[in-house]
What we know:
By secondary structure, the protein is mainly α. The chain has one domain. Helix content is 63%, strand content 10%. It has a two-stranded antiparallel sheet with strand order 1-2. Strand 1 and strand 2 form a beta hairpin.
Amino acid sequence: xxxxxxxxxxxxxxxxxxxxxxxxxxxxxxxxxxxxxxxxxxxxxxxxxxxxxxxxxxxxxxx
Length: 63
């Protein structure tokens, strides 16, 4: 029985790690696609509108 619990715990950790890996890979992939698009168009950055003030600003890397 302890072996089964250990196997279940290892399986749960592996599943959680796999899900986190997929999320991180998608995030990195999106950043790479955005950088490629900026280099193709010759842009210096991406402007986004601030919803509270209505002003445009450069998008930060973590957004």
